[in-house]
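Researcher: I'm preparing a figure for a lab meeting and need a structural model of a single chain. I don't have an experimental structure, so a prediction will have to do for now. The sequence is pasted below. Please return the structure as tokens so I can convert it later.
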Amino acid sequence: MPITKQDVEHVAALARLELGEEEKESLTEQLGKILEYADKLKELDTEGVPPTAHPLPIKNVFREDRVRPSLPVEDALANAPEREGSFFKVPRIMETD
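Model: Understood. Here is the structure written out token by token.
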């Protein structure tokens, strides 16, 4: 099913995008080509191919969390513009009634 200019206008309205006439024409053509290619993919035999979200196995690349000494309070607050005791003092951002 080919995409129409009205489809592009509808999606643009949903996304709150303002498109010019030239952009609408261009997007109609581009999206039409994308959908044509997606239809070609339907012709492939995928019997026996398990569905995957990623082409390669995923592994966690983050380091393991380890407990270690933290920065001393005086060092952490050394460049603080304002402090209150052992805490940063920041402007209030919430209004109370």
